[in-house]
Amino acid sequence: MSREAVRGVGLLVSIGVLVLVILLSLWIGTKSIPFADTFALLLADDGTGDAAIVRDVRVPRAVLGVLVGAALGLSGAVMQALTRNPLADPGLLGVNMGAAAAIVSAIAFFGITSPLGYIWFALAGAAGTATVVYVLGAAGRGTATPDRLVLSGAALTAVLFAYVSAILLLFTHTFDSFRFWNVGSLAGRDFGLVGRISLFVVPGILIAFLLARSLNVLALGDHTGKALGANVNRIRAFGVIAVTLMAGAATAAAGPISFVGLTVPHVARMIGGSDQRWVLAFAAVLSPILLLGSDIVGRVIIAPQEMEVGIITAFIGAPVFIALCRRRKLATL
């Protein structure tokens, strides 16, 4: 069987696992509903409380998990390709901290406390931070190199972290609302929020896949890429836009969820090789599996209570990442 055929089979198997995890996400919850009844209620609303739980709570939660998971995994894969840094994730450009700074400002100064209200602030904060990082990285000699982008992102992240800490200390009433968002969760989100973030996540995903061939060229190095006719600055600019749309919207909806964008691209490269088209395809499928799987674990591990998905992904993602580091050298990008 050829390498391409193996990749294709692997992707089909991954899609099958994702469908299974989605079905489990619809079925498993604090309220026990028989498996057959769950899917009967999906097809026909009988007006009962169980129907409301399945259709209005679990369906938007599962859809949100797929969108947020795909957005985080793809943004991590694009970030690692753009910076040729295997440890890169959206946090490295300051996107997550920019969103956090905007949300803590929204809570402290405008009294906004719902995820639907956070989204515009988070996107504005993520976009503003990414723009500043890119301008700082491209300043001087006019080339946004991976090292300069990473350094600019790290510096701005430190500044924004200090700002968030200062706001939480000065406006103590913001702490309770911010800490629930900051831990990362898919619970309590409705179709309105799912629709809002899809307006940003879907274009971000399209841009990421359109960049896949260019990211392969960029992996050869800036000089080789330019020699092959690639516009390196334009590729990085569109890459930053894609990361900002996906990571900004995902963070606004579910909070800062760690390790999905960092770990899954490494698994995707282990299965799909170094071709970014396959890396992005596997990252788009495997990331929702990790996120929704973690959400399911969070629902049952301390039932009838729930543990937030951001905590579970950290407990699952960190050991997996360490195992990958110990088993094989992280791919040089």
TrEMBL record:
Localization in the cell: Cell membrane
Coiled coil, from the record: none
Pfam families: FecCD
One GO biological process term: siderophore-iron import into cell
InterPro entries assigned: ABC_BtuC-like (IPR037294), ABC_transptr_permease_BtuC (IPR000522)
Molecular function in Gene Ontology: transmembrane transporter activity
Topology within the bilayer: Multi-pass membrane protein
GO cellular component: plasma membrane
Transmembrane region(s): 9-28, 62-79, 91-112, 118-137, 149-171, 191-212, 278-301, 307-325
Cell division among keywords: no
Annotated family: Belongs to the binding-protein-dependent transport system permease family. FecCD subfamily.
PANTHER family found in the cross-reference section: FE(3+) DICITRATE TRANSPORT SYSTEM PERMEASE PROTEIN FECC-RELATED, FERRIC ENTEROBACTIN TRANSPORT SYSTEM PERMEASE PROTEIN
Designated name of the protein: Iron complex transport system permease protein
Annotated organism of origin: Saccharothrix ecbatanensis
